[in-house]
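> forwarded from #structure-qc
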């Protein structure tokens, strides 16, 4: 056993910990979220993430491909190790905060979805391959987690030929889905199309006790579905009946559409882009509120709350609070106040809140239910009830519901642009770009996003009349 110079023994991480650590994700989509976060965070800075199913030989693999900055050998080693997290050093402003906290997301997420993961990554200086494999560790009888890593120089993909590199290559070829180095280099060459990026293969996918693969790839060829989410997610204290499970629990596409409060990265599932939902910009009769608990510090900013009615066709099912932490969804459609009653009070009302100062649970699917969290939820319930009391009559008489403002995401720069009043989002083309915006101030990809409009604008009157005046005339 290796020892420090003073004789103090090093701790080890038993390979069995890879499995036990992954069980924090009782819901498969929670594991996906960890992997998506890794691409989304500003240290990777990916604009696109592709999630797909790929057969390599006789093995079915989940793949995740991003066009981020890639990783060198040291970074890929840290990603495959435990407890390394320097994401807090990356911050591109209030609207782009890193989600990572514990340096554990890749390990827990990938090992929840399958027993083994192979990572290909190319940065500006080099290309690397790393293997995190329970199958490999079990086969060699390892008493600690070890990760074979190969490093190649660019542009010719040459590597060292010493014993250490050969051992790493042998392990990767024997225990991954690729049987030759030429096939490995083929994957690295494929990354050159985006200059830098990372592709992850997850194989030996998680199976149920029946032996069937847990995730459903057959029901919808444009989606990945979770057929039994009501059995998997036990974190919700207000569990719904099986027949009332919301679609985002069953559909990865639907879950990804609401995963971020301010969507930036384009997510593509099985070759088809996800239509992101900027929930706070998809409401009507919206109100902005602020709330600052007495126990918050003097310099702490108050909580911003946006409340409004859903315009969606499923508004009688999907309503409640959307709770985010550092832009990432923690709980969706959390019903509070009137919404917990068996009547129509509060139905269709959505509140969007970002609680950055509340600690999320280890699996990032909820918040710790302490006194601070409970006091905030109580205050939010009071505000939601008051909103319903003041707006219910207006809402009942509102015909032809459209959001207070129609926003659309550019397929080139991923920025969100506000359109003319009365614009129906369903009438827009499948691909929309900034140059299509009628507002000349915000019709170029290099322009920053327009701030939210004040809630007291004459939008509601213009909306009901289907006014088509440009934004500059209704601000």
């Amino acid at each position: 056993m290796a020892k420090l110079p003073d004789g103090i023994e090093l701790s080890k991480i038993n390979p069995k910990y890879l499995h036990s650590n992954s069980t924090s994700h009782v819901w498969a989509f929670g594991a996906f979220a960890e992997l998506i976060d890794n691409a989304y965070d500003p240290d990777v800075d990916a604009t696109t993430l592709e999630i797909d199913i790929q057969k390599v030989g006789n093995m079915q693999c989940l793949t995740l491909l991003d066009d981020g900055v890639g990783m060198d050998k040291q970074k890929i080693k840290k990603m495959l190790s435990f407890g390394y997290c320097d994401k807090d050093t990356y911050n591109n402003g209030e609207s782009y905060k890193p989600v990572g906290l514990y340096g554990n997301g890749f390990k827990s997420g990938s090992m929840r979805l399958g027993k083994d993961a192979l990572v290909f990554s190319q940065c500006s200086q080099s290309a690397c391959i790393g293997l995190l494999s329970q199958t490999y560790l079990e086969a060699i009888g390892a008493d600690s987690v070890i990760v074979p890593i190969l490093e190649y120089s660019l542009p010719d993909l040459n590597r060292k030929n010493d014993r250490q590199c050969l051992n790493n290559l042998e392990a990767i070829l024997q225990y991954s889905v690729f049987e030759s180095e030429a096939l490995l280099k083929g994957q690295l060459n494929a990354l050159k199309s985006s200059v830098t990026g990372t592709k992850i293969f997850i194989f030996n996918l998680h199976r149920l006790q029946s032996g069937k693969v847990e995730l459903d790839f057959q029901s919808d060829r444009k989606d990945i579905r979770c057929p039994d989410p009501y059995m998997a997610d036990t974190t919700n204290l207000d569990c719904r009946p099986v027949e009332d499970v919301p679609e985002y629990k069953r559909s990865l596409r639907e879950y990804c559409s609401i995963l971020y409060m301010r969507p930036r990265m384009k997510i593509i599932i099985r070759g088809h882009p996800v239509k992101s939902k900027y929930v706070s910009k998809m409401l009507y009769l919206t109100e902005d509120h602020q709330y600052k608990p007495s126990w918050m510090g003097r310099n702490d900013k108050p909580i911003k709350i946006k409340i409004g009615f859903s315009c969606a066709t499923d508004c009688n099912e999907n309503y409640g609070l959307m709770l985010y932490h550092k832009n990432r969804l923690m709980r969706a459609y959390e019903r509070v106040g009137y919404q917990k009653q068996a009547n129509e009070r509060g139905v269709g009302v959505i509140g969007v809140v970002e609680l950055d100062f509340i600690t999320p649970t280890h699996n990032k699917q909820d918040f710790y239910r302490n006194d601070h969290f409970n006091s905030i939820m109580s205050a939010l319930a009071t505000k939601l009830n008051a909103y319903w009391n003041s707006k219910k009559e207006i809402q009942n008489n509102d015909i032809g519901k459209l959001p207070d403002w129609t926003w659309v995401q550019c397929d080139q720069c991923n920025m969100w642009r506000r359109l003319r009043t009365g614009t129906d989002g369903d009438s827009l083309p499948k691909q929309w770009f900034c140059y299509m915006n009628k507002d000349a101030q915000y019709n170029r990809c290099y322009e920053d996003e327009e701030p939210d409009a004040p809630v007291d604008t004459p939008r509601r009157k213009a909306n009901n009349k289907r006014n088509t005046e440009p934004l500059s005339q209704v601000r």
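QC bot note: The first helix runs from residue 16 to 22. Confidence is low (pLDDT under 50) at residues 235-239, 455-475.
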